[in-house]
Write a structure and sequence with these properties.
Strand 7 and strand 8 form a beta hairpin. This protein is 38% helix and 22% strand. It is globular. The chain has six helices and eight strands.
Length: 157
């Protein structure tokens, strides 16, 4: 599978609300990517292809579902932003999305296999500690507490 995102990178937001994408991630977001509000209070940066897949799923569900499905589709679309990396590999994170994820200054950009996640550094420490404990003792883990599959949840909260 090509286009896997892996690794953990500490970066700081600049005064304009921009963050530097790790060099290894940048190529996937040329010329653009999509930022969405993601589960557990982080942001997810997706390639246009991945975003399109999720948007198509949300659209299909809203056509065959009721008001809740349509509301989810609206919130997903309204909470998303197209981002364009600049020549230094920075993306501007809209204020509403920074507020949602609690991004102040210190952030962690992680490769989450099929997407990139942007976390407040303190929040990431807590979430990562939980994930590491699951990896250390998977047989005793509460699997209901593991992160949601974006393809099933629509990627939005």
């Amino acid at each position: 599978m090509d286009g896997l995102f892996v690794g953990q990178h500490e970066h700081a937001l600049d005064v304009k609300g921009r963050i530097v994408l790790p060099a290894g991630f940048r190529g996937a977001f040329e010329p653009s990517g999509f930022l969405i509000k993601h589960s557990e209070g982080c942001l997810a940066l997706m390639t246009p292809e991945r975003f399109g897949e999720i948007a198509a799923q949300m659209s299909h569900r809203s056509q065959s579902g009721g008001p809740v499905s349509r509301a989810a589709k609206r919130s997903f679309g309204a909470g998303a932003a197209r981002v364009l990396p600049d020549k230094q590999g920075r993306i501007a994170i809209p204020e509403e999305l920074r507020r949602f994820a609690g991004l102040q200054r210190d952030c962690v950009v992680i490769g989450a296999i099929d997407e990139v996640e942007i976390w407040d550094a303190a929040r990431w420490q807590d979430v990562n500690a939980q994930g590491e404990s699951v990896l250390a003792a998977p047989e005793g883990a509460d699997h209901a507490a593991t992160p949601l599959d974006t393809s099933e949840s629509g990627g939005a909260t």
